[in-house]
Amino acid sequence: MRKLLHRMSKMCDEAYFIIRSSLILTCMMLACCLLALLIAGKFTANTYELHRFAKELFTLPQAILIIAAIASAVIEDYSTRD
Known about the structure:
Shape: elongated
Largest sheet: none
Mean pLDDT: 89
Strand content: under 5%
């Protein structure tokens, strides 16, 4: 993990910003998912929408991270091409 963080810090500023921002957004979404589940309590007909919202907050970070990884790789490739 330490090597990964060290390699990430050597990226160009734009690519590093994308990765860092996506990680922060992912952590925030997962924290909100946990908070929504704690507020909702047990699964009933009244809390169905809140549980569904928490499920979406749980699955969306995967898409954000894959898009951020691809975008930062493309930006890093174009910036090191010169």
